[in-house]
Structure formats: structure tokens, C-alpha cells
Amino acid sequence: MVWPFPPKYRKQIARIEITGAIASETRKTVLKALKEVEEKKFPALLLRIDSPGGTVGDSQEIYEALKRLQKKVKIVASFGNISASGGVYISMGAQHIVSNPGTITGSIGVILRGNNLERLLDKVGVSFKVIKSGPYKDILSFDRELTQAEEGILQDLIDISYGQFVQTIADARGLDVATVKTFADGRIFSGEQAKELGTVDRLGTEEDARVWAAELAGLDPEKAECNTIEEPKSFINRVLNRGQGRSAFGNTLNWVEFELSTAGQPLWLFRP
Length: 272
Known about the structure:
Blueprint: E1 13-19, H1 24-39, E2 44-51, E3 53-55, H2 56-69, E4 74-84, H3 86-91, E5 96-99, E6 104-106, H4 118-124, H5 148-173, H6 177-181, E7 188-190, H7 191-197, E8 202-203, H8 206-216, E9 226-228, H9 235-240, H10 248-261, E10 267-269
Helix pairs in contact: 1-2
């Protein structure tokens, strides 16, 4: 019999790393990697998360893909330095979660920010003439304050998104919605506290998570290797992410790009 992929993958653990702010490029990369895990029939997946969260829709799509993959693959999430907000949401797509005791996690909630430059524009003598089809078409415009009605509309949007977040955690972790709401108020907490609250299963390292994933898949932890799935980096990305860590310049560019591209969007994001 000819296998579409070498049988070696059936005795390996796939590893996918999610780092930095979650946005559209993260979603595309992770969904592609998850498809590869399924096609190559890896029996287990180690999902390493080191992220403050990000956009709502992209986080939801990654979570849904993980939920589908659960039917075929054992998934263990491992928290790094930080797994907050959207990072927590994504982890709910894993059957099991391991966190370092000192991991920064939590920040369960939604944030939406806009910029009001009205007074600055007045000082420099700049104004805008807006023609719109409805009273709320320019909601969150940077050249004026929000009206009370607009604040109500945005608060309703935030409340719905928050409800989705809380319900997902409650379903994934077997908790009551009321219980989740007692700590889902935007606060951050440590991995040790997260275990007490029930949002993670065990305290440990990425290696501990790998061993657990191997055991769940019926593999020998001593022999089962991790196969990290990632896209080849372009030359410019290799420069900005040289060595084992991301350069300060690369980090700054990524955050500026993220801030500009997500302005005015509801975010599941921890903003220190």
C-alpha cells in the first residue's frame, strides 16, 4: 500500500507555535498548518501559545478549526510567557492545557479603542465635511466625540462579543457561565491562579505538554519527536526576526502594523 505521506508522521507530534498579536496573517498561517496536521495524519498536536491575543474573528476561526481537528487529533496547548485574551480563546480549542506557573494569562474580555483628535485639529485649523447615508456611518470618527447613542451601540457590540468569549470558556472547561464571569473582568492572572480557576489543567513546561500529548496519542514519550510546522520565511522576515528571537525593530513594525490595521475593531487583546 502506498501512503500519501510517509508513515513516520504517525509516530510524531506536530507542533504549531502562535506568537505575537493574532490577526489575519496569523489566522492564514495557523489554518494552513492545521490542515497539514490533518492531511499528514499526525496523531497529536502540541500548540504552543505565546500571545497577548488579537482580533476577534481571526481568533474565532482558529478556535473552530482546532475544535474540528479534535475529532482526529489529540491536542495539548502549552502556554509560554503570555497567553491572554484571544490567546486564551484559541486554547479552548485544545482538549488539554498546560501552563507555566508564572505565565501571564487571563485578560478575558473585549476592548475597542478609537482616537479623538478633535481639539488638536481645531488648533491647527483643520476640519472635515462629512456626507453620510445614516447618523452612525462615521461612528468612531477621529475628528469628533462619540455621541451617547453611539456609545450605546458600541457597548452592545462589545457585550455580545464578551458573551461569546465567556460561553466558549464555560463550554470548553465545564464551568458555569456565572463562575466564568467572576474572573472574566479583564484582570490578568498567573498560570498557577488559572489552574485554581479551572482554565488550565496542569502546571508545567512545554516539554511536559509534549510528553502528555505523546501519552494521549499512545506514543512512547521517549521516542516521539516534535515536528514544527511553519511557513518558510522571506528574506525580510529573516532579517527582522534574526536569531532565536524577534528583533526590537521587527517587533515595533509588527505592532505599528497591527495597531493601524485593527483601529476601531473589537479586540480580544491584553494591552499592558
